[in-house]
Design a protein that fits this description.
Strand order of the largest sheet: 1-7-6-5-4-3-2
Distance between the termini: 28 Å
Number of helices: 4
Shape: globular
Number of strands: 7
Helix content: 25-40%
Largest sheet: 7 strands, antiparallel
Order of helices and strands: EHHEEEEEEHH
Amino acid sequence: MEKLASFEIDTNINKEECFIYLSNMDNFENWFPEVVEIVSKNKEPIGVGKQYLETVKIPLIGSKKITLTVKNFEQYSQFSTEGNLAPLLPRMEIFVSNNSNGKTKINWAFYSRNSSKLFKLFVPLFRYVMTKRAKIAAVKLKVVLASIRHGGALEQAS
């Protein structure tokens, strides 16, 4: 896998509440740029195998619908999805942990699962786009989590 972007932030929200918010993919469009909409494709509870339909804006192409599948789900600690968008073949990973300073640390990373030599030529472009989006996402997520901390409600959806 080729890492295209990542960020790490701290929040005052406890690990469990933070994980509940992040693993509820219905919230993704609230903090990640160019995500237009995410809806559940099946009625399964959140966990490995759960699927979502994401509508995302792609440079020079426009809006595209992508099926996302939860590939890893460890309650309150890690969550990952993989999408069917070729040639990118995206994978998103989120890790939530306790910091020694009493805060919750969020590690977010975005990868491409495509290892072809031809794709490698386009990695710098994908890295540029995703790094730019990740920087915006880190700021937006901190703001969203701070607003939740001050009176918003968290819920885990299916």
